[in-house]
Design goal:
The structure holds two protein chains of two kinds. By secondary structure, chain A is α/β, with parallel strands linked by helices. Chain A has 22 helices and 15 strands. In chain A, strand 5, helix 7 and strand 6 form a beta-alpha-beta unit. Chain A is flat. The N terminus and C terminus of chain A are likely disordered. Chain B is an alpha/beta fold. Chain B is about 50% helix and about 15% strand. Chain B contains 14 helices and eleven strands. In chain B, helix 11 packs across helix 14 and helix 12 crosses helix 13. The radius of gyration of chain B is 21 Å and the shape is globular. The model of chain B has no long low-confidence stretch (mean pLDDT about 80). Classes of the chains: A alpha/beta, B alpha/beta. Chains A and B meet through helix 5, helix 7, helix 9, helix 10 and helix 17 of A and helix 4, helix 5 and helix 9 of B.
Chain lengths: ~575, ~325
Amino acid sequence: MMPGSAADPLADAVLAARLFVLAPQVFRGMTLRGSSPARDALVAALGAAIALRRMPGHVDDERLLGGIDLAASLSSGRPVRQTGLIEEARGGALLAGMAERMDSSIAGRLAQALDDGQAALVLLDDATEAEEVPPVSLTERLAFACDLAASREWRGVTLEPAAGTLTQVAPLDDDALRALAATAEALGVDSVRALIFAGAAARGLAALAGRDAATKSDLAGAVRLVLAPRATRLPPPEEDAPPEDQPPPPPPDSERDDQTDNEQQQPEPNLSELLVEAAKAAIPADLLAQLAQGKAPRRASSSGTGQKRKAATRGKPLGARPGMPRGGAKLALIDSLRAAVPWQAVRKREAGADANSAIIMRKEDLRIRRFEERSPRVTIFAVDASGSAAAARLAEAKGAVELMLGQAYVTRSEVALVAFRGTSADLILPPTRSLTRARRTLAELPGGGGTPLAMGLNVAREVAEAVIARGRSAALVILTDGRANIAADGAPGRPQAAADAEAAAKAIHARGIDALVVDISARPGPEGAELARALGGRFLALPRADARMIQAAINAVQPIGKAA
Amino acid sequence: MARFPFSAIVGQDEMKLALLIAAVDPSIGGVMVFGDRGTGKSTAARALAGLLPPIMAADGCVYGCSADDQARYPGVCGTGKMVKRAVPFVDMPLGATEDRVIGSLDLERALRSGEKAFEPGLLAKAHRGFLYIDEINLLEDHLVDLLLDVAASGENVVEREGLSVRHPAKFVLIGSGNPEEGELRPQLLDRFGLSVEVRSPKDIEVRIAIMRLVAENERDPQSFASRWAGEDEKILKRVAKGKARLPKLEAGDDVLRDAAELCLAVGADGLRGELTLMRAARALAALDGAKSVTRKHLVTIAPLALRHRLRRDVLDETGSTVRITRAIAELFG
């Protein structure tokens, strides 16, 4: 976003925030992406308008929903209840920072509370990587999503109170409903929930201005605020204007009236065309770029944090340790009693109780059970789709990956796929367990071109590092002939390419990531074995192997990736 | 928040049908809903629970025991007299722990008075009602195993932490999930009775109708509910009549043969497919008020009963539904 540009994202975010404040129970909340002074100012302004209750990322079930406060109950000798954060925030909103790291169990609770109309939510999304997104189950349920990362504004924000109320605004007429539905269709927004939010937002914008019916500009505003951020495709192109050169969206607030005047002077365009135009101008820049490339918008990887497992809840039992039984941790009753017994004589004397009274427990006696669990494994396939490998082996490699996937969805491990060919390497399948998605991606994998082995290794390493950062273990399976001829910078030339590939392999080795090289060339040369050596991994030459043989070989070296 | 009237839900006919069949014959074994977000899956499930007439349950019983249950599980809920209560609808959150689902040792009582008491979990709450699990495909496997096991046996047996408790837990399990985000293991899928595919309505008129209804409901939930009460009442009567008719209906030999042939033709693994297909056809006939189970019932319900049981072929792109309709066309013309 250029400085001085008419459409600073903050303006729309302020508008969304005013709508949210107008009717928190209708709009349910907003996602604010990007850490910027503008966002801080907006959050401060929201805090002044409604009660915001900050929710830490490590909040546990008991604190969120309320329940018995065990420590207080033990010390006072009677049940002490604590209210949950959701209840405390009623009438206001919960504010969740670092929402992209939110645990799925917390997201599940919040989604329920949102559905029951008990809560409103402001999510702060600080993600910098495309793979990280706040739980989709929550963002889907919130009316607004504003990206403030590019905002150049930093002055204080005030949320002007609304001139009217939502109930004063008449229901949308059929034309308006139809236009919204058509716009959603054009943008590929399937969710009916989004459509309902858009209708409410149009009426809300009218209420902010004190009108008793929604006008065209209100509808356009609703499309901009609700539908555009959810777009999954670009509206079908008319004429020639590329979306990037669109005029700025209709400025909100004060200038709205002029805008309406302008519209009346021009030949009247069809209402839904008008709305689609408004949406196009408001699709966030990064989303636009992705859509233009035909990529799906950023989304949570298959199971995202859903598979993050707590070793506190299950697995192989270990000893007990002191701690409070909360957040899914289980009380080790026997160990707790054992810890309390030696102190009974002293405590009973202190409490003045007689020798026959019940055992006196204190918070420090509590022990919780511990479990050891293997972290879930992600197998990352780096597939050489270059001309030299493709001719001979790409079909088999695809087949092997599909078989592994079929198995992965029984063993619940995950699979990711990196393909390298020509002068690029891409993560074409983020870690997933979904056969449906994987199959589609594989079917579309083309072959041919040079062998940018170094690039492929680097991308695979980045994926592995992201996997490890999420507490899972990663293993690489590299299917290649090892004959690199494209260097890391994309330039052709064998010597440099080989040197770069070796450096990339050593970087993987240095990270301690397990690797297996499957030589898929028709006549295995020394390159594959050398690559495996640089990786510190295993090597398999599979001349004339078919998909099932490759799979069997991968299974045979299955111990890779077990440690982490 | 007031529940959305069941009859006011636009479209989603397949899902509504599956829910009604499960209401007529809960022994069918749960409904799995595949579909995107924001398609009204949970709205439909909640609406059905809100529609059904109140049940008679022992007063003060945490499990909501019926008179039958009281006789079968003496000592579980005492002999409280029967009072009306709403059909339970339990929405199970993704992060629920095993303790919360099956129940656990009542910690507070255990520590304070040394008493070994059982604190019932979500399964107890869902007895005689619905247990809805959004994104069941992201739920931990051992929990899904456990849920399906209890749903099939109608009884929750707890043997842990020194507890030995048995209590009734009969409920209709409704799971939903988007297969794009991870799939259920085939063993688990097979144990769901019916499965439906819910898509976002593509028809603009349908989408407009939904927006209008939701807006009306938000503006004045009470008059909205009373406007649809008549329609809801009709559905309720259909379910009640279907329930009464069900025991009298029996599938004839010709229908059984059709069912067996169809299962063989599509390659549905295991006997469970045939059994469910037959039961579902029977429930559909009961719901329709038909005198006997016919091939028409069988064919209508076949995609719902079978599509999640077909053996997966990794390399075959053809959808399950297509395979079933094709087989039906070949077999029955």
